[in-house]
């Protein structure tokens, strides 16, 4: 059913650190289960959680009962499997040699070694499954979810090792077929087997042909050869499995490198490995996936934020905490938020922005109202005493705190998307800062972000304010912000009407250059004042010339 609905996309949540940790933890669990066979101990297999802990406790409690013959056989088999470098299937050589040695040496009779014993042959006649059992097992069908995740995780692990890709939907369809058809033959449910998969990988199997050969061999064993493996020691099979696990167990030495590269990935690896080894394989996989998702959510809820500064005379702006010799723009704050803006991190976005610029708008407004009320009360008292009715307004104007910046530029280059909550946060931000006389503009937005902002009418109806609020680069936004303030000061100084000026023009900030007044640069009706820190390039502004919008800036030096 899951294959029909194409639910294989869930495999994308199986991260590489989680898969590595899961493989290592599962390998350690298998090693623990097989350890008793290496020593020839007869310990009941623990079922449930804590298999590793309980099994090792039982092993050490019964270590004095170790079968010396099994121990010696295990040492020989592991040495041969690890050291023998011949162009032959080493596992087959070991199984054949150990079977002959055990049979002719009669090791089970003389030394009490554990052997495979009787292996039944033949097939059970096929039978239609009992559909009356369906209601009783309906709830148990959910066990397929961790089974599928387990299978895909193994597939991804070996695909990464051997250089091929995995199609989760195809894997899901294959698992479904492997569980439907064998149900007519009284077979157990099918899933991936880590130990057997590692054994096949260690023997060099690469394609489905190996599975066909394995099936034929098993068929021959079930029909004809099963009695010949009666004398095969269990410790020999355990040695083959344990040696095949060495690749996964060697990942322990990669932990320091993982920690140096990414502490988050290292923690995911450790948590998944520990849960898989100490609790259970199935629950360990669930813990690994859940913890990986929690880490992703945490990273988006607590992203990196920074104030940007300018690199020399270039138009590049970077984090002032990460790079040296960066100069913050004069009276402008450039804020970068490095995460998608959505409902879960909206509050984080606002809090970090307020902290970075040093101003909380609603607190600033409250403070100003209190100051105005107090100052007005004092000034009115003094005015009444002096007989001056206008002094109160002057004092109130003087108590207003002047901020050290007039514009906030939001660098949206690291914001891939935002939802409706993020859009509302943007709208509220613009309104709050406008109340205290601070302009907020956006820069470096991707097309998806712009589309969302337009649909939310952030730029007004018909996007009429888009050219005033949206810029392709941070540098253009800074130029626009400074020239806006410069125009306001110049108009006020010259007593010109603000209707003569347009908001879309080209300007260059000359604040770092020697002040030189160009006598040819005059404004009709101007009082002769000199531009103190801003140079207006378009003198045709007073002639009602149509100027270029912000996205058509040309570099004029």
TrEMBL record:
Classification via PANTHER family: SULFATE TRANSPORTER (PTHR11814)
Membrane association type: Multi-pass membrane protein
Family annotation (Pfam families): STAS, Sulfate_transp
Alphabetically ordered keywords of this record: Membrane, Transmembrane, Transmembrane helix
Entry superkingdom: Eukaryota
Stated name of the protein: Solute carrier family 26 member 1
A single GO cellular-component term on record: membrane
PROSITE patterns hit by this protein: STAS
Domain STAS: 322-481
Localisation per UniProt entry: Membrane
Gene3D superfamilies: STAS domain
Source organism: Hippocampus comes (Tiger tail seahorse)
Primary location group: membrane
UniProt record, GO biological process: transmembrane transport
Coiled-coil residues: none
Membrane-spanning segments: 212-245, 266-294
């Amino acid at each position: 059913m899951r294959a029909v609905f194409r639910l294989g996309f869930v495999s994308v949540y199986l991260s590489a650190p989680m898969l590595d940790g899961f493989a290592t933890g599962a390998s350690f669990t298998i090693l623990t289960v097989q350890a008793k066979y290496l020593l020839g101990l007869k310990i009941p297999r623990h079922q449930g959680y804590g298999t590793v802990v309980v099994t090792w406790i039982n092993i050490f409690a019964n270590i004095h009962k170790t079968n010396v013959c099994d121990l010696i056989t295990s040492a020989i088999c592991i040495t041969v499997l690890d050291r023998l470098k011949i162009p032959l299937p080493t596992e087959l050589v070991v199984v054949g040699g150990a079977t002959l040695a055990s049979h002719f040496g009669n090791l089970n009779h003389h030394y009490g070694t554990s052997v495979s014993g009787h292996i039944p042959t033949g097939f059970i006649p096929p039978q239609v499954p009992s559909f009356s059992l369906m209601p009783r097992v309906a709830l148990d069908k959910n066990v397929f979810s961790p089974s599928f995740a387990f299978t895909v995780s193994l597939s991804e692990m070996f695909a990464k090792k051997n250089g091929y890709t995995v199609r989760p939907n195809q894997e899901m369809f294959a698992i479904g077929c492997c569980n439907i058809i064998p149900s007519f033959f009284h077979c157990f449910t099918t899933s991936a087997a880590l130990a057997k998969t590692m054994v096949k990988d260690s023997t060099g199997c690469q394609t489905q042909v190996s599975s066909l050969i394995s099936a034929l061999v098993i068929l021959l064993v079930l029909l004809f050869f099963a009695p010949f493996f009666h004398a095969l020691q269990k410790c020999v099979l355990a040695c083959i499995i344990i040696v095949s696990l060495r690749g996964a167990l060697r990942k322990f030495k990669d932990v320091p490198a993982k920690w140096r590269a990414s502490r988050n990935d290292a923690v995911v690896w450790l948590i998944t490995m520990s849960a898989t080894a100490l609790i259970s394989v199935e629950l360990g996989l669930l813990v690994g996936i859940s913890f990986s998702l929690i880490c992703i959510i945490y990273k988006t809820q607590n992203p990196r934020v920074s104030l940007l500064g300018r690199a020399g005379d270039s138009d590049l702006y970077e984090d002032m905490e990460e790079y040296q010799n960066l100069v913050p723009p004069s009276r402008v704050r450039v804020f970068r938020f490095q995460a998608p803006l959505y409902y879960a991190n909206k509050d984080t976005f606002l809090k970090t922005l307020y902290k970075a610029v040093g101003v909380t708008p609603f607190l600033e407004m409250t403070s100003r109202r209190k100051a105005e009320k107090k100052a007005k009360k004092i000034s009115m008292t003094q005015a009444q005493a002096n007989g001056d009715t206008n002094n109160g307004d002057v004092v109130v104007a003087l108590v207003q705190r002047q901020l050290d910046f007039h514009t906030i530029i939001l660098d949206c280059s690291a914001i891939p998307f935002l939802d409706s909550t993020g859009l509302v946060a943007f709208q509220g931000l613009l309104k709050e800062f406008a109340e205290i006389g601070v302009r907020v503009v956006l820069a470096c937005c991707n097309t998806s972000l712009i589309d969302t902002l337009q649909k939310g009418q952030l730029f007004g109806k018909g996007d009429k304010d888009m050219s005033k609020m949206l810029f392709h680069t941070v540098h253009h936004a800074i130029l626009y912000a400074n020239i806006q303030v410069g125009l306001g000061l110049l108009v006020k100084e010259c007593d010109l009407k603000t209707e003569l000026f347009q908001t879309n023009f080209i300007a260059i900030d000359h604040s770092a250059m020697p002040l030189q007044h160009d006598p040819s640069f005059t404004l009709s009706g101007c009082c002769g004042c000199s531009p103190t820190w801003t140079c207006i390039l378009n003198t045709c502004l007073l002639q009602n010339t149509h100027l270029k919008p912000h996205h058509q800036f040309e570099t004029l030096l």
